[in-house]
Amino acid sequence: MLGIRSFGAMQSLELAAYDFLLRSRPDKGQDDRFLLIEIDALDRQNEDGKDRFSKATITDETYEELFQKLSKSNPVAIGLDVYRDVEVDSSKHKVFKDYLLQDEKNLFVVCKVIAPEYKDIGDPPPIEVADKSHRLGFSDFVSDYHGGNEIIRRQLIEMEPPSNLVFDQQPTNKRPCIAERAFSFQIALHYLKEIRNIDLKPEKIDISSNNKGVYSFNNSDDGEVALHRLKNFSSGYEGIDAGGYQLLLNYRTSDGSPENFITRIPLRRFLTGESDGLIGNLENKIVLIGITDPDAGDLWATPYDYEKRTPGIIIQAQMISQLLDAAEGKRPILWALEDWQADLWIWGCFTIGCITVWIFHSRWQLLGVQIILVGVLFISCVVVFNRLGGWLPFVPFALALTTPAVVSILTLTQPKSRSKSELPPSKS
Q: How confident is the model at residue 53, as a pLDDT?
């Protein structure tokens, strides 16, 4: 059993069981700390004929109009999840330019880190923010491949920046992405500091020291809340690349969907004021701006539906939400068993299985006891996951528990061969 796990042979089954645990949880409802201003297909089609939207993003005229309105609303943080590599003309778009340039502003922007192993040169940050690391976050996700789908189960909050050698692959007229922290992590830290006075401890760890340091939030009410860091072997994960600082993503759902947990307003409706009565006061809220048009290609599968694609900006909101809830003691950061801990559980389940074989000799008794034990194990996994946020890998535990009984039952059902002395005498 342990050998099979070490080769990753059961990872697909274990991840499927993990997804079932996620889907079995009750809804948490909408998160009222957010507003998503989404750039949907209608926005990008430029129905009003003002040449407002280009193929990839929105024009600076629209950004200026948008940030003029946001500047009057005083949100605690604004997250712009749209790649930009063109400098803003301050003579025409002063408000937007000021938001990008001034250090004290609450605007956070994205860039994509160079990944030479995938022949990806990344996406550079806005020119005005290229050297402002405290307002710059990478947009990169880590995903699991399943049936051709990229499923987001993990959250990468920090990574070691690329080397200067890698930077040489960047076009000379563009600044490379130097972000060490994720877009979602930067926004969450800013919100917690400004609104809840909650700090990250320690302020920085050495990411290059493989899987050693652990972050925590110093919540005065709940003590320190650890950000449980994934390792290469963590519960159902068997030898994954756990580089950087990775967490399990604790999704929040409303009406059974991870897409419905946040208030969403199309950009055109926000600019015209049609939605002012719906969104209310934005003070002390997080405003996210991102593209949800499927044609933009920023779509990802989730454990809730392998076929349906969720926009990347929704995934970013999920990641911010889980960090805020964890720091405020509302939802735990999900944790997984380390390799040696899972091995102990497997040996324990195997021992229990052997004891049942030793006590019960009837195959029907064995079968009944095994059904009860597997049911207790499954309920335990569900309770630990829902109540404590712990992921216990059900599949290897169940196999270790039932293997001795299966072998015994198969042995008991085999017909016994008769010895030569037991054969009837032959007729002469």
A: 44
Indicate the residue type of 215. Y
Q: At what angle do helices 363-383 and 11-23 cross, to 10 degrees?
A: 60
Q: Which residue has the tokens 């095994």?
A: 370
The predicted model scores a pTM of 0.88
First vs last C-alpha separation in the chain: 55
CA angle 292-293-296, nearest 5°?
Answer: 105
How far apart CA 157 and CA 186 sit, in angstroms, is 9
Q: Which residue, chain included where needed, has tokens 């059904």? A: 371
CB 97 within 8 A of CB 88: yes
The predicted pLDDT at position 47 comes to: 36
Question: Can you say how many angstroms the Cα of residue 109 is from the centroid of all Cα atoms in its chain?
Answer: 19
Q: pLDDT tens, 335-348?
A: 999 988 999 999 99
DSSP letter, residue 414: S
- Sheet order of strands, 144-146 included: 144-146, 149-151, 299-302, 305-311
The amino acid occupying position 166 is: V
14-18, 28-32, 89-93, range with the lowest pLDDT: 89-93
Report which DSSP code applies to 195.
I
